[in-house]
Amino acid sequence: MRIVIINGPNLNLLGARSPEVYGTATLEDLDAACRDWAHDAGCEAETYQSNHEGDIIDRLHAARDTDGVVINPGALTHYSYAVRDAIEAIGIPTVEVHISNVRAREPWRRVSVISEVCSTTIYGRGIVGYRDAIRHLTARAAWPVEIIAYGPHADNVGDLRLPKGDGPHPVAVLIHGGFWRDTAARDLLDPAAVDLTRRGWATWNIEFARVGAGGGWRATTADVAAAIGALLEFGEGHALDLDRIVLIGHGSGGHLALQAAANMREVPISAIAALAPIGDLEAAHAAGIGDGAVESFMRRTPEQSPDRLVAASPIKNLPIGIPLLIVHGDQDAQVPAEISRSFAGRAADEGDTVVYHELEGVGHDALTDTSTTAWEKVVDEIDRLR
Ligand code: DQA
């Protein structure tokens, strides 16, 4: 697989240009990192930068014989219909990347005239966004995906991947993490979705409103419930086994999985795999996770809103009544393992069936990173839930 990484105007100044916004890596560093990430993902990347719209369009045309494009068009994003037309014309899967959080800066940066013709848009993750874009392209090439809308908003969509065979297939609902923020999206679980699909699961990797783009404790949990509920509508037509639905959530997605199971009884969920979940919002807030993440999600501090805690914190809703698999790395610097340790203990005390694994020497992201031995353990445990 061959991909092209294209950077637009002013990105040659990376490292020197507003490092507080764009970081300290230079374009050279970025290009080298992209080649390494591509290599790790099993593909080859060519890199290109230009300050000229016409040259970028020519480079896009020349990319017609490749398998994917990652493009950060710089300010051209916000007004270049010519770049948009070129992306549409070449018909190669293209990912739009921005280093900064364009949704949280000047209003004119929120407009992208190219998003619609791109397979996804990644922003606000620093240069790691290019790595995620490469992984997204390789995952898209590895297994066919059907994107299904479950509601009226742009984020009310999910990726359905079906395993080989006639089915009915057990279903894994994947709920991504990222502290409920809009800079994180379901592409984070693309590689995990592909791996689970290969192993015989139908995977439903869902998107939902996140904080910064219409989300918050009510809207986000409502979207997740709607996305899970949609399985009842399209499931039979896709040979899904609706008696074998497992929710798999990572970090804040683990929180959403647990809370969805506690809130909704109309969908028969057979198990939950919560990976480094934020099972207790109060404890997570007290531990200061994610730079104010709990407060942004709840729009209040836990002390200010005991009612919201009952509505939104899984530990307040025990027993969940569904078998729980909880996995946490003991080196998790984003969500302390202590939260899962006490959550698992409390859930068991309240009568839930709980399997808790604390993985030694493992951090937060490794639990969904398909290149790690932690993932192998996680996926073995998940396979037992089918
Ligand atoms: C950018 C954001 C654009 O608004 C800006 O004009 C850039 C860089 C980013 O990577 O965050 O040049 O695309």
Please tell me the total number of domains. Answer: 2
Question: How much strand?
Answer: 15-25%
What's the N-to-C terminus distance? 33 Å
CATH topology of the largest domain: Rossmann fold
How would you classify the helix and strand content by structural class?
A: alpha/beta
Describe the main β-sheet briefly. Answer: 8 strands, mixed
Full CATH superfamily name of the largest domain = Alpha/Beta hydrolase fold, catalytic domain
The coarse overall form would be globular
Helix content: 25-40%
Strand order of the largest sheet: 6-7-9-8-10-11-12-13
**Rg, please?**
21 Å
Which residues sit in consecutive blocks of at least 5 with pLDDT less than 50? none
Assembly type of the chains comes to single chain
Q: Which architecture of the largest domain does the CATH hierarchy give at level 2?
A: 3-Layer(aba) Sandwich
Can you offer a commentary on this structure?
This protein is an alpha/beta fold. Helix content is 35%, strand content 19%. It is built from 14 helices and 13 strands. The structure holds 1,3,4-trihydroxy-5-OXO-cyclohexanecarboxylic acid. 1,3,4-trihydroxy-5-OXO-cyclohexanecarboxylic acid binds next to loops.
